[in-house]
Known about the structure:
Layout: E1 11-15, E2 22-23, E3 33-41, E4 49-53, E5 56-61, E6 68-77, E7 83-87, E8 91-98
Antiparallel strand pairs: 1-8, 2-7, 3-6, 3-8, 4-5, 4-7
Amino acid sequence: MSGVSYPYEYAYEAVAASQTxxxxxxxxxxxxxxHRIVVAVATAATSTVSVIDGSTTILAIPANTPxxxxxxxxxxxxxxxxxxxxTGAGVTVLAVGIFS
Length: 100
C-alpha cells in the first residue's frame, strides 16, 4: 500500500531440512532481531531444530516432536553473533525477523 508506514520491516528466511548452522540474513550480525520461527515437522523421528546465537544454543527442539506446524515466538536480539538455525532431515523452518 502506497503511503502506509509500518513500524517494522520484517524479513523472512526459509531453512530447508538437513541444514547445519544456516546464518539468517546475507551475513548475520550481533543485534539482529529474531521475531519468530515457524517450524514444520514432516517426520517426527528427525524433527530436531536448534536456534543458535553466535555459538550458544538458545532453543533446542528434540526429535520425535509430533508432525505439525508450530509457531514459536523468540522476540530477541542476538547477543554474540549471527542467528543460525540447524534442522533435522524431517523438519523445515521459516525464520521471521530483521537480519543483516
